[in-house]
């Protein structure tokens, strides 16, 4: 292959920079690249040409490729068009350079990868920062022990963007557009390079990420986030934290830093500089260069040069994007914590102290709420012994949850004392699974579980029957206790139940703590309520509804065991004294225990997805008379590592329920 011909899809917006570069590259007869066609719904202002001839234009990519027979299609169109245009290009035998992010969801990303593999095409994803020649040097220095043992990886960036930035395209500042995911958030677009590069240098770019913690905020009047941070842990247990804002007091060059026990390595990826800092020595900064991704793709096609950014290399990033996509709506930054300036370039918003907050988040590997940002505070359960570190559990009011998911309060993330996240919210497999809380599939035909409703003889159906749990008042907010009053409302706003719920953190030992969930539900509807489940409507084994804990999904199913019982099948539906779920990697274990003489059957899923709950209506409906009360208590040991059966049995015996006292004090 002597000259590689290129068709560009998208010539406006960010596509303009690609167009200029391709026109320059096509000027020389010796260039290995030749622009032969462009595609956009809006035609170029004037006909395009190069010394090699006219550049074809068409509003449809398929027609353009039939005319030009291009070897490569460079796609720089809005994110929700990437997958369909990729399919068109592949159908014409083309190779691909696809702007970042490649797709708007992880499911679409998997479709894209499968399509590329099936066609045997070369595909490069446009994370230009991953073309930096500093990255392999950085990895080599880390591998050689130049900064000691790797303790953390961080990314950070502060930019100034006005309201005009979000007016540049119809998808800008949006989470969804015309029913399509676009996920235009600060971590998934402007600082997507920081996320992808941090994961790459942490050795986590090619694996799906789990246990992702997010704090998403918006100061501008937009749908998506403009000030956010994330934290996750790699398979090796290394924490990766990235923080960024578009509401800064000053622009700074984004950086990715590897923190070691004997120094740091910082990559300023926009400048391609790498700085080595070690105690007692002067910092050493070295300049590198970036390999153009189109040139690399061309070299791959001509001589077999390895691709710098194939789809598999951004799997970790796409896990982050999908977590942002599924997360509740970003929290607005109160006006009291903003400076609002009217400028020629639009409305500028500066979030109070955000420049320092972003820097501290990266330096400490902490979330915004953990570094004390006044606009990022949230209710939490702290370490019961007063130890420092991330909160053990964070409270979410469920206010931003879609109506079809049955909005309700829940805890997420819940962490071990070592900081490992052991809960999940809004997962792709069951978006209505919300961390740790109380959810019931049917209360007199009102769905307080979320998602589809099981209808006898018809199966699961999406109905307009979703209720919600509204917070009314805090009964206690002190030390390690959160107690609240809730109203369970039908779709029409009628109250069916009034609840008092307590969340209590218990100190157990240095590697374990216990979360207690206690509820007192009172029927306020004025008539008998019938609590049911899919099992009571003809689906055996699906008696879910009660306390429910959704754990993080992994590539391998967790181990499940109890006192003298092993396996999902044996524990599901049992009333074992306790039930343990342990991650396959051995990093965390959850042990569930219902104190008291009466136990509801356990609802357990491990192979399909990791989740544990109690079943109020396992086989038969539970009837609650008008004015009647239902009380339940659950204790969950949250452990680092993989304690054995004897250890867990001993810890369970030491647990003393306190939830009822928490509610009594607040009543």
Write the layout of secondary structure elements.
Layout: E1 4-9, H1 15-25, E2 33-39, E3 48-50, E4 53-58, H2 61-68, E5 72-75, H3 82-91, E6 95-99, H4 106-119, E7 123-126, H5 134-143, E8 150-158, E9 176-177, E10 180-181, H6 192-201, E11 213-218, E12 227-233, E13 239-245, E14 255-260, E15 263-268, E16 273-277, E17 284-287, H7 293-303, H8 315-326, E18 331-332, E19 338-343, E20 346-351, H9 354-364, E21 380-381, E22 393-396, E23 410-414, E24 436-443, E25 446-448, E26 453-455, E27 459-461, E28 468-478, E29 481-489, E30 495-509, E31 512-523, E32 529-532, E33 546-550, E34 559-562, E35 565-566, H10 568-571, E36 578-582, E37 588-593, E38 602-605, E39 611-614, E40 622-624, E41 629-640, H11 645-654, H12 659-666
Parallel strand pairs: 1-2, 1-5, 2-4, 5-6, 6-7, 8-13, 11-18
Antiparallel strand pairs: 3-4, 8-14, 9-10, 11-12, 12-13, 14-15, 15-16, 16-17, 19-20, 21-22, 22-23, 24-25, 24-32, 24-33, 26-27, 28-29, 29-30, 30-31, 31-41, 32-40, 33-39, 34-35, 34-36, 36-37, 37-41, 38-39
Helix pairs in contact: 3-4
Domain Gfo/Idh/MocA-like oxidoreductase N-terminal: 6-127
InterPro entries: DUF6807 (IPR029475), Gfo/Idh/MocA-like_OxRdtase_N (IPR000683), Gfo/Idh/MocA_oxidrdct_glycsds (IPR050463), GFO_IDH_MocA-like_dom (IPR055170), NAD(P)-bd_dom_sf (IPR036291)
Protein name: Dehydrogenase
